[in-house]
Amino acid sequence: MYFVIALLIVVAILFVIDVIRPDLIALGALCVLILSGTLSAEEALSSFGNTTVILVATLFIIGKGLSKTGITQAIGNGISLRIQSGQENLLTSVIMGVVGTVGAFMSSTGIVALFVPVVKRIATVNNINIKTLLMPLAFAGLISGMMTLISTAPNLIVSEELAKQGYEPFHMLDFTPIGISMLICAILYFLIRSIILKKNDGEQVNLGSERMKSLLRKYNIDGEIFRLEITASTTFLNKKVMETELRHMYNLNILGIEADEGFATSMTIVSKDTVLRKGQILYVHGFEEDVLKVCEYKNVKLLEYKGVHSSMLKQQIGLAELVIPFNSSFIDETIATLGKERFTQFNILGSKRLKAYSLDNLKNHPIKTGESILILGSRDDIATLNNNTNDYIVFNIPFDHASELNTKKALTSIAITLLMVVSLVLNIIPPVMTILVAAVLMIGTKCLSMEEAYSSINWSTVILIAAMLPFASALEKTGGITLIVDQVQSVFGNGSPYLLISGLFVVTALFGSFLSNTATAVIFAPIGIKIAEASSISPYPIAMTIAIAASSAYLTPIASPVNMLVVAPGGYKFMDFVRIGFPMFIIALLVSLLIIPLLFPF
Question: Does domain 210-405 have CATH number 3.30.70.1450?
Answer without folding.
Answer: yes
